[in-house]
Design a protein that fits this description.
153 residues; 35% helix
């Protein structure tokens, strides 16, 4: 098995976060945290993940400042996992991934869970990438620019 390479020194904003969220379990844990799960057992029940793997992923998310541990809200001796500001910042990424998944991994009439506005109970509007002047942007409308004298992404 190939050794995992760290991207912590990369100049690329896509590569660098992969040390924290670059496996599917981590993103599913974050998804579940957005859905209100807070306890180890809740994550394990939701994901069906082995305790040692779940424990390692939770430690990594805490180490990267995406989750924090707090005393259990019911006063028990356990701890709970809560999203930090950094973790909350992943919400648009999860929405984009969800919308992409709905577009390409479900048949048009196939039922699936939906993200809805809590206030109106209506589906969330599609994410859009816009230029500073408000124009819609697609991939062909953008370019990645390296910092001066870096020569790489």
């Amino acid at each position: 098995m190939a050794k995992r390479v760290s991207h912590k020194d990369s100049l690329c904003g896509v590569a660098r976060p992969l040390d924290a969220i670059g496996d599917w379990w981590s993103l599913l844990i974050v998804r579940d945290a957005f859905d209100g799960l807070r306890r180890f057992g809740e994550f394990q029940k939701s994901l069906g993940l082995a305790k040692n793997i779940l424990s390692a992923r939770l430690r990594n998310l805490v180490a990267h400042g995406i989750l924090d541990t707090v005393p259990a809200s019911d006063g028990s001796p356990y701890q709970e996992y809560v999203l930090t500001q950094k973790g909350l910042g992943l919400f648009p990424l999860l929405v984009a991934l969800r919308q992409w998944g709905e577009d390409f991994f479900f048949q048009p009439d196939e039922p699936h869970v939906m993200l809805v506005d809590r206030k109106t109970n209506q589906p969330v509007r599609r994410l859009e990438l816009r230029a500073q002047d408000g124009r819609m942007l697609m991939a062909e409308d953008t370019v990645v620019v390296a910092p001066p004298e870096s020569g790489s992404r």
